[in-house]
Amino acid sequence: MLFLYFKLIILFLLLSITTVFAEGDGGGGAGGGKCYCDKPIPNIKKTKAILNMHSKWVIDQSQGEQANFSKIDLVKLINVYKINSLIEFRNANFEWACINGIKNFNNWNWDSIFYESNFRYACLMGNKFDKATFEKTNLKNAHFDLSSLKGAKLLECNVSDTSFNGVDLAGAVYEVKPGTIPSLADIARAINLWQLTYESSPQSLVELRNALKIAGFREQERQLTYAIKHNHIKKAGRIERYFNYVFFELTCKWGMLPFRPLLIVAMMIPIFSLIYLIFLIKDSDDGIWRYWPPDRMKIVQTTNERELLKIRKGNSLFYALYFSLLSAFRIGWRDVNVGIWISRFQPREYSLQATGMARFISGLQSLISVYLLALSILTYFGRPFE
Question: Which pTM value belongs to this model?
């Protein structure tokens, strides 16, 4: 009986310890959504003394002492004591600290406070950090949930398990400390991930893309591929830049929009049909012909084997659109031809063929369509731009 009581006591102690560590590790971490800014703000005299010792420590770490503002509401501290120069706070320890409610970053000189400072587990939610610079900042397990980082710079920062849930990253420079990956589940829900950029090296973006790829976030992986390629071609020569823009960015945004090529093919059909309609109106010996094969199953004596279609004859407008459809899908190899499969729906046995300039335009449409269809298939099922 005594042994049973002893086991119950041990079990209770283990459960208590596990609960304490779980709360400590998960409360302010990535995606935790909790802020622990419960530490009282030091008075003005103590704050000045802390900053004075900290300034000595920044110059020579063998002297003075690093400022410790952990679990403090920084906005409240600065507002209460009307601190104008935040440069005194650089390199300080802000672990578990809170910065909430900043709506206009330009009115605050926060860049200096972020330089080489420790914001591990910090609560930075709901702020407007547009064009801010985080340089060599320890942001491990911090969370920026629902903040705006438009045009901000993340340079050599430790972003291990950092939460970017719902963060607007439009135009943000992402060159973090190598090997540090933010919370994938949270950054997958970031806004404008495809607008991330880099200044000198795409290494951080490539690492993040590979991590999202392994985790199965295919859409976000495509967005980062676009971000990497888009920024690469901006630094390329004029000819290379124009070539890549026309063939890859305009068509499918480097694989981010794999179905856009199919949409372009569909849009080209009515556009090219208007061009073919000109040949039906123009009085010429070349144009679109309706050809009746001599070995057809049903032969009508009044039907000519070859007939040059003109606008005055029957449904020529329909023929222009139909010929454009066949030209778009005249792809295949030997007997495997999509255009022939489409023609099987015709109630009568004839084929549409072109001569002269109409034949050239038809071939051009077929060539463009083949490229776009192949691009759509490759970008949807594969990763041709990695």
Answer: 0.79
